[in-house]
């Protein structure tokens, strides 16, 4: 059964955040809130986490995982980014955007797109997510908590706990956080290509 952690959305209790971060360090797969919707998260190097996320979401090997970063220092270690792209990404973060860029050697091979060698990165604008990333001290491997054959992501922590009780190890609940996934922008060719229109305004990339 998944452990259930309830935190304040604006002032998350440090003890609770510490407990969730410790569980991630020990290999746990967690469901947690972001500034767009709930996500599944595990350590970057966890093969078990990757396979469990793929199983829950029924994903193939062409799916772009997202590396959730606390800041640009972390993001810059994971992807190759030139000055023009840097300015565009910088102007849009933190926020509900995922950017697809060529991965560096810091990214495990199994997380990269098999042909393009790209990966998704983002910096969230959510107090609880940022608290978790700060305590964890490293980026978090993530994927939107959208179940197969369902049109919208799950939005309530208690419902996630109920439905995925034996598939995740922990649920971090800070209240409802919306149903619209991030806007996804592919910069792997140097020019912005909008892959998915979501919570982030696309005007600056068109």
Automatic annotation (TrEMBL):
- Which enzyme class, named as a word? transferase
Its Enzyme Commission number(s) read 2.7.7.87
Q: Which controlled-vocabulary keywords does the entry list?
A: Nucleotidyltransferase, Transferase
Quote the Gene3D superfamilies the UniProt record gives: DHBP synthase (3.90.870.10)
Instruction: Give every YrdC-like domain span.
Output: 14-200
Q: Which Pfam families match?
A: Sua5_yciO_yrdC (PF01300)
Q: Which InterPro entries match?
A: DHBP_synth_RibB-like_a/b_dom (IPR017945), Sua5-like_dom (IPR006070), SUA5_domain (IPR052532)
Is the keyword Transferase in the record?
yes
Q: Which GO terms describe its molecular function?
A: L-threonylcarbamoyladenylate synthase
Name used for this protein in its record = L-threonylcarbamoyladenylate synthase
